[in-house]
Amino acid sequence: RAELVQRLLADLGRLQRMIANILDTSRLSAAETRAAPERVALAEAVSSVVDELREHAAENEVALDTDVAESLVIWADPEGVRTVVRNLLHNGIRAASGGRHVTVRGARTDGWVRLEVRDDGVGFPPHEAAHLFEKFYRVDGGGSGRVSGTGLGLYLVWRCVSLDGGRVTGESAGPGRGASFTVEWPAATEHES
Fold first, then answer.
1. I need a labelling partner for 162 at 20 to 30 A (CA). Which of 15, 28, 34, 39 fits?
2. pLDDT value at position 145?
3. Whole-structure pTM over 0.85, yes or no?
């Protein structure tokens, strides 16, 4: 009975994420620009999402490692930033389940703030990288024959980042070799408020 309850709770969580992704996709598809960007402390946004997903990571036996300096501040929509981090971390946890790692690193380079989410999980064929951010596109689960998710999470990442004037890329050396996603947002200057 306890196992059934856990499976039902996991299914409800997936359904809730799917509904949230569909609603976000609909809202963002119609948006031409992001309204009222703000200064966002990236470390705070990452920490908030990591706290939210820590139990999910533990259930999947995934170690989360973060290194995002408090000084990294971007000019973006705060909820959009959390959506980006949440989707990338959720994907990383799913890909790395079973005793692997997900690392999150932040850095500032030439007017941009870069966030990298890397996992040592299932990976994907390198030629798939060109399609990862298309709406409803799903990658074969690392050659396992299993395809999971709705194909909306990475589209939402791309859309949120694009509306904030940023860019996002994904890469993998191939199935079984992990994946890395890099997001760059415009760095906030001290004069922006």
1. 15
2. 44
3. no
